[in-house]
Write a structure and sequence with these properties.
mainly alpha
Length: 181
């Protein structure tokens, strides 16, 4: 193949092909440059333009939950979260996340709820969540199933749930980004 043909192929290389060469064939920038008759600088430029890097691959693997590291971290987090001694902290953090960091805080700030009202509501939420978390830690799935079934009838006219994963994903991405620094 002539150098001109190689250069033309390089101009038409796709992100997917560059990912294959870098990730699957494990070729260095120098090897890719030699294969296509271009400079290492041209290879690096195109990899940067396409976002093809080992860091991005690892980041993508973690995000797509395909790598051993993610599975290990996920397993360790589950073990930690299912420890009874962590119930208090988890219940309080969930109360802050689910309850306080939302419309109820706006109502409190607007004077619609007193400080005593907030203390009563917070205590109620923390205790209820702690009960549910305890049942989860203890593997009391029948208890949870019956509880949910008994309250399900009260919410039949509510709008369907729309899982809000935005903050969960943001915190996860922030954690992953902090590892690289």
């Amino acid at each position: 193949m002539t150098e001109e043909m190689k250069a033309e192929l390089w101009e038409q290389i796709t992100k997917e092909k560059l990912m294959e060469l870098t990730y699957e064939q494990n070729l260095s920038d120098r090897q890719i440059a030699e294969l296509y008759g271009v400079t290492i600088h041209q290879v690096r430029y195109k990899r940067n333009r396409f976002g093809v890097s080992l860091r991005n691959k690892m980041y993508g693997d973690i995000l797509e939950q395909r790598c051993e590291l993610y599975n290990h971290l996920n397993s360790e987090a589950k073990k930690e979260l299912l420890k009874r001694e962590n119930i208090d902290g988890i219940a309080k953090a969930l109360t802050q996340y689910v309850f306080r960091s939302g419309p109820v805080e706006d109502m409190h700030a607007a004077g619609k709820l007193t400080q005593e009202d907030m203390k009563t509501l917070n205590k109620f939420m923390v205790n209820r969540l702690a009960g549910i978390i305890t049942a989860i830690c203890d593997g009391k799935w029948v208890h949870l199933g019956l509880l949910l079934a008994s309250f399900e009838k009260f919410s039949t006219n509510w709008d369907p749930a729309e899982p809000d994963m935005e903050l969960l994903e943001f915190v996860f991405h922030h954690f992953i980004d902090s590892i690289d620094k």
